[in-house]
């Protein structure tokens, strides 16, 4: 611990010796005549630099005048009005000028200047306290820091380094710049005076060990920047020593007659001084490294850890001879396992700076072999930026490894979807010969990118880690644009024959190349990344729009000619054709006319027609349909040409379908397989085109209806024909509806559509009972869509003329839809594991099957949410919530939420109905004498608890719904009297045990009302029973009577009972609003059944007793009580009890949910737990810190050790160490 020397009481009385400082300048005294001050030697004398000219505000070199002047600022009690902190914060002056002013002040009185510097660091930490001269003279550092800690504003956690705003963002850079300039300007004398640096380092070391985050963060940043500046000084000293040594050796090797002995002595003296300076710099760096870095690199705060790692990377890069060794690299290697992405990112950027310099590779061999696995794994990092930088680091690492070692990294390059540096890696793997780089003017297959394109295809196939080329293309887009846009080369590789000696692409490689080519064209034309990469479409700049237009022109000009050739070559390959047919979507169709490319358009249309005739695959046919849709754009002159081609194709398909259908449905003849295949293939083509094109003029409804009706009557129609007929008919109805909606239609059009729609719904309802599951799923999906489209929602947006089309399903249809869901969605996983041929499905098939079932459930739940079907049908869905939580929990929960928004009371009735259904099912299975501790009954209770949690914390919103739920539950419990008489409990009495889960959601006064309603069903004998069979009744009664105060408090958000550091505030005085809430009683539901008369009337309602005083809340803020809303008017207000002593309850404050346990309080510790370290990485590593030992030079004397009490952090807490 450093102690300050005795400071004179009168600061303006300066000793002569204190004012005779040497000039501080960036120019070194090459004559070596100067000596260090503070060691009893004369000061170094160098050439005067600009820093020596008077900058204290008093003019040309004169000392500051006046007893209370420093740096040109007025002094009061030894403290500036204009602190150094304010000067740096404003950032208006050049930093060198600010430092020069401080140096002048230090030369004038070093104690006052140091006091100013100490206060600068204190204020930069956000502390409002000021270290006075008295404190500096008589108090130890630990006492000063403790005193400054008390000056912090505990209500705010902000301090300059974390504050928002442009001024504070600039402050950090100014703060760091100040420290760097300070050391640079003092590097020739002041830093060696054994006073300034010792005091500053001691202060920063003490602050960095503080429990206060602001002190720790600010002092660590200052110490690390100070260390960086000292490393730069050490590097300059090392260079000067080497130069001096060379000069000395050169002079000594001269002949005796020509040798200058005086110069030899001068050089020897200079080398000795440089050696002494270097030793002192080493001592300072050791003090900072041991006192700050080794503790703060594992600080609890991520920003502090990041600062340490960033700076050590600078040291190793700047002065590799001293710092680039395993003793320092191990800190970066360990920190690569940090939990925070910000810190991991700093590790990677630090390593990139080292690996970039190939001369340092030999020093990184051990580190690379030790931590290469971690670097590879970081390419899979969850943080976007970390993964990007990990790949960039791998790019540099691979340059210093053999090809055998590069295979270790190969698998990771594409598994992470963010690979911005892939192009550099691609060049490494491709290993192009230098001769190939000279052939830059060749294009196509012989161009410079041909081998790279092939390598890209090989990698895409060999990685086998990702199926989607779009993400590979996006990863390379910024750094390999030229390669990815070389479509001429890709086209040449696909169409041209390979050169002599060149290996041709395989079928699989051609498919991969076509997919990659399509993805590059899509990325260039759309200018946005694939799904999951970006946050949405961004606005393009003018330059990007121009590039987009140029790319589309280039694409159109090339592929308008090449696409027909590609389709002709690969016409029989469904996968290749499907990808190629997507290219016209990105064409600039005007070029067909302006470029006189009509003949190529005709060739394209012929190839599409041939593909339609050859293929029956759905994906291929839909691609053809979309291509026609893209080309049939009325804005372009090619529309008529394309429309004629399309109409001719549809005419042929429709005529063929009608002709085949006549033969297929002839009475008395059994259709053979060949006829069925012809009908199915034609129907597939028509359905695919009807999806994107309006084919209403071909009147496809009649033939499809006839086909479907025959299937119902005979029951032997092939399933694929039925599925596509249903889909095609569905498209017919939707296109007719679109035509009616978009244009004025006659009443006859509406009636015809209404008739067709209802007939079609009846057909779909019939097919819900088909023996084939796929047919039933298709019928169900289409029915849900039709019911949703033709519900009352169809009239929204001012379309009242469509009212005749509204269709509401009857009870039988609703029942069949619900039965389908129960039979095909809520099934055990094992029941759906076997495919039709009895073989076990693989994992992907199971996931696909689950996805299909989720879609079916979501379609039905949508009908519930939009009130297309009655809400009580949701009871059968809600009761599956717990059993199928993993598969459908999110869908069911969202359905509950939406139905509650529509009708709170009906939703509550539906929830209690689902519990009643489960209870009845349990009774049917186990009888009335079931065990209440059984898993079945416990599961129902758990489901009730989950239902209760969904009502949230605002009991006023759900007050009436919860009361109605209890009413229905009580009626159900007493619905079935016991045949053995009143001395035995009702058969459903155990249901009250389930109902008690909802008691906590009742307001206190409502509990009393529900209790009175319960008593209407109870006889006097029941109230006296204490047998086990009556326990449900007793527990339910107790839940309504007990905990009045607690359940009132449950209106408020959950308050943690564990330790917290927040302070309590005084509660606000009670208001009339609070008394209104307490005086409310539940009104009679008007829509209740006949038994509702048993509810208490207004005159019968008892007033709620006055609540006990509410405990004072520990929140730091008490918000205003919530105002009653108009929609809460269903409650009647009664005379209020006087409760002036009670604080208002906050119905609006957010807190922890009742569904979750309170979180443990977060206690910030200075040090991270050592348990989190990766032990296997620490194996063989020395945890002890090392001394910074700069590279030795000749005749270097042994370095003296620092005094332990100067820089030992432990000495800060030692009360016995005083100021000397």
Automatic annotation (TrEMBL):
PROSITE patterns: SCD. Pfam families: HEAT_SCC3-SA, SCD, STAG. Keywords: Cell cycle, Cell division, Chromosome, Chromosome partition, Coiled coil, Nucleus. InterPro entries: ARM-type_fold, Cohesin_Scc3/SA, HEAT_SCC3-SA, SCD, STAG. It comes from the Eukaryota. Residues 293-378 form the SCD domain. GO terms for cellular component: chromatin; chromosome, centromeric region; cohesin complex; nucleus. Residues 36-48, 1063-1074 have a biased composition (Basic residues). Its main location: nucleus. Residues 234-287 form a coiled coil. It is found in: Nucleus; Chromosome; Chromosome, Centromere. GO terms for molecular function: chromatin binding. The keyword Nuclease does not apply. Residues 1-75, 1056-1075 are annotated as: Disordered. GO terms for biological process: cell division; chromosome segregation; sister chromatid cohesion. Belongs to the SCC3 family. PANTHER family: COHESIN SUBUNIT SA-2 (PTHR11199:SF3), STROMAL ANTIGEN (PTHR11199). Part of the cohesin complex which is composed of a heterodimer between a SMC1 protein (SMC1A or SMC1B) and SMC3, which are attached via their hinge domain, and RAD21 which link them at their heads, and one STAG protein. Component of cohesin complex, a complex required for the cohesion of sister chromatids after DNA replication. The cohesin complex apparently forms a large proteinaceous ring within which sister chromatids can be trapped. At anaphase, the complex is cleaved and dissociates from chromatin, allowing sister chromatids to segregate. This is Cohesin subunit SA. It comes from Nannospalax galili. The gene is Stag2.
């Amino acid at each position: 611990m450093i102690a300050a020397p005795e400071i004179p009481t009168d600061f303006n009385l300066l000793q002569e010796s204190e004012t005779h400082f040497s000039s501080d300048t960036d120019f070194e005294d090459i004559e070596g005549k100067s000596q260090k001050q503070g060691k009893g030697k004369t000061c170094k004398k160098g050439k005067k630099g600009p820093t020596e000219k008077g900058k204290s505000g008093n003019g040309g070199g004169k000392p500051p005048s006046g007893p209370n002047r420093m740096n040109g600022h007025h002094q009061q009690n030894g403290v500036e009005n204009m602190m150094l902190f304010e000067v740096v914060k404003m950032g208006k002056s050049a930093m060198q000028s600010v430092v020069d002013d401080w140096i002048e002040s230090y030369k004038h009185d070093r104690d006052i200047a140091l006091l100013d510097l100490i206060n600068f660091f204190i204020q930069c930490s956000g502390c409002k306290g000021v270290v006075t001269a008295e404190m500096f003279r008589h108090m130890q550092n630990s006492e000063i820091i403790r005193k400054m800690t008390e000056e912090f504003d505990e209500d705010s956690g902000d301090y300059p380094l974390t504050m928002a705003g442009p001024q504070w963002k600039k402050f950090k850079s100014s703060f760091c710049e100040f420290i760097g300039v300070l050391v640079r300007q003092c590097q020739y004398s002041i830093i060696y005076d054994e006073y300034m640096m010792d005091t500053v380092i001691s202060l920063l070391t003490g602050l960095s060990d503080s429990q206060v985050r602001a002190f720790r963060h600010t002092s660590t940043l200052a110490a690390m920047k100070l260390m960086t500046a000292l490393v730069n000084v050490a590097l300059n000293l090392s260079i000067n020593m080497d130069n001096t040594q060379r000069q000395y050796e050169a002079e000594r090797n001269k002949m005796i007659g020509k040798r200058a002995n005086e110069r030899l002595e001068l050089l020897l003296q200079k080398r000795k001084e440089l050696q002494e300076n270097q030793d002192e710099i080493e001592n300072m760096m050791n003090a900072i490294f041991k006192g700050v870095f080794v503790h703060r690199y594992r600080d609890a705060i991520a920003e502090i850890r990041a600062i340490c790692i960033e700076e050590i990377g600078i040291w190793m890069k700047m002065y590799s001879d001293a710092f680039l060794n395993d003793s320092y690299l191990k800190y970066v290697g360990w920190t690569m396992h940090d939990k925070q992405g910000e810190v991991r990112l700093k590790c990677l950027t630090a390593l990139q700076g080292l690996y970039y310099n190939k001369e340092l590779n030999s020093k990184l061999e051990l580190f690379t072999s030790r931590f290469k696995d971690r670097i590879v794994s970081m390419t899979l990092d969850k943080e976007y930026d970390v993964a990007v930088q990990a790949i960039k680091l791998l790019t540099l690492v691979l340059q210093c490894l053999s090809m055998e070692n590069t295979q270790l990294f190969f698998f990771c390059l594409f598994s992470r979807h963010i690979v911005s540096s892939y192009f550099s890696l691609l060049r490494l793997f491709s290993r192009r010969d230098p001769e190939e780089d000279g052939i830059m003017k060749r294009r196509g297959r012989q161009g410079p990118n041909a081998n790279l394109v092939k390598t890209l295809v090989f990698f895409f196939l060999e990685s086998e880690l990702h199926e989607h080329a779009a993400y590979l293309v996006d990863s390379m887009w910024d750094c390999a644009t030229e390669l990815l846009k070389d479509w001429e080369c890709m086209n040449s590789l696909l169409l041209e024959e390979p050169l002599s000696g060149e290996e041709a692409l395989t079928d699989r490689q051609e498919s991969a190349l076509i997919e990659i080519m399509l993805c590059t064209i899509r990325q260039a034309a759309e200018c946005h990344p694939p799904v999951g990469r970006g946050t949405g479409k961004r606005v393009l700049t003018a330059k990007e729009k121009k590039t987009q237009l140029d790319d589309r022109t280039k694409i159109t000009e090339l592929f308008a000619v090449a696409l027909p050739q590609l389709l002709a070559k690969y016409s029989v390959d469904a996968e290749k054709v499907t990808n190629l047919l997507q290219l016209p979507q990105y064409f600039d169709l005007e070029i067909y006319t302006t470029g006189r490319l009509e003949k190529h358009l005709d060739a394209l249309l012929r190839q599409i027609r041939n593909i339609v005739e050859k293929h029956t695959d759905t994906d291929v046919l839909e691609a053809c349909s979309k291509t026609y849709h893209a080309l049939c754009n009325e804005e372009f002159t090619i529309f008529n040409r394309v429309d004629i081609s399309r109409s001719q194709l549809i005419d042929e398909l429709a005529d063929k379908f009608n002709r085949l259908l006549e033969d297929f449905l002839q009475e008395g003849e059994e259709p053979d397989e060949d006829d069925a295949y012809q009908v199915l293939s034609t129907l597939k083509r028509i359905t695919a085109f009807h999806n994107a094109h309006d084919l209403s003029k071909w009147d496809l409804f009649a033939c499809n209806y006839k086909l479907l009706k025959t299937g119902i009557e005979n029951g032997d129609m092939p399933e694929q024909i039925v599925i596509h007929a249903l889909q095609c008919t569905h498209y017919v109805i939707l296109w007719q509806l679109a035509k009616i909606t978009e244009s004025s239609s006659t009443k006859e059009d509406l009636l015809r559509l209404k008739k067709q729609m209802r007939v079609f719904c009846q057909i779909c309802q019939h097919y819900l009972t088909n023996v084939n599951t796929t047919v039933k799923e298709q019928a169900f999906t289409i029915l849900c869509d039709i019911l949703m489209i033709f519900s009352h929602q169809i009239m929204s947006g001012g379309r009242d003329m469509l009212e005749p089309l509204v269709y509401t399903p009857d009870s039988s249809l609703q029942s069949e839809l619900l039965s389908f869901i129960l039979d095909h969605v809520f099934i055990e996983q094992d029941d759906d594991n076997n495919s039709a041929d009895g073989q076990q499905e693989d994992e992907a098939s199971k996931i696909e099957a689950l996805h299909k079932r989720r879609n079916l459930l979501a379609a039905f739940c949508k009908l519930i949410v939009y009130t297309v079907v009655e809400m009580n049908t949701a009871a059968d869905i809600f009761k599956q919530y717990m059993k199928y939580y993993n598969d459908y929990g999110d869908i069911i929960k969202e359905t509950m939420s939406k139905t509650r928004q529509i009708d709170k009371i009906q939703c509550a009735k539906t929830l209690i109905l689902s519990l009643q259904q489960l209870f009845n099912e349990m009774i049917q299975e186990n009888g009335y004498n079931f065990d209440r501790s059984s898993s079945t009954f416990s599961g129902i209770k758990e489901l009730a608890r989950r239902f209760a949690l969904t009502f949230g914390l605002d009991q006023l919103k759900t007050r009436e719904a919860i009361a109605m739920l209890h009413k229905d539950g009580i009626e159900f419990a007493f619905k079935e009297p016991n045949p053995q008489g009143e001395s035995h409990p009702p058969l459903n009495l155990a249901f009250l045990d389930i109902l008690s889960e909802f008691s906590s959601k009742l307001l206190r006064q409502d509990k009393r009302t529900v209790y009175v309603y319960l008593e209407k069903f109870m006889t006097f004998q029941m109230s006296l029973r204490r047998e086990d069979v009556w326990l449900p009744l007793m527990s339910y009664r107790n839940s309504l009577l007990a905990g009045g105060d607690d359940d009132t408090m449950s209106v408020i958000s959950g308050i943690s009972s564990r330790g917290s550091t927040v302070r309590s505030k005084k509660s606000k005085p009670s208001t009339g609003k609070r008394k209104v809430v307490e005086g409310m009683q539940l009104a009679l539901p008007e829509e209740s059944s006949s038994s509702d008369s048993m509810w208490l009337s207004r005159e019968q309602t008892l007033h709620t007793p006055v609540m006990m005083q509410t405990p004072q809340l520990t929140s730091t803020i008490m918000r205003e009580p919530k105002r009653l809303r108009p929609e809460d008017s269903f409650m009647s207000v009664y005379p209020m009890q006087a409760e002036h002593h009670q604080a208002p309850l906050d119905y609006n404050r957010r807190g922890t949910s009742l569904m979750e346990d309170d979180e443990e309080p977060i206690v910030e510790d200075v040090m991270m737990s050592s348990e989190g370290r990766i032990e296997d990485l620490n194996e063989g590593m020395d945890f002890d810190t090392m001394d910074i030992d700069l590279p030795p030079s000749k005749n270097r004397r042994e370095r003296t050790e620092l005094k332990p009490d100067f820089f030992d952090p432990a000495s800060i807490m030692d009360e016995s160490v005083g100021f000397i």
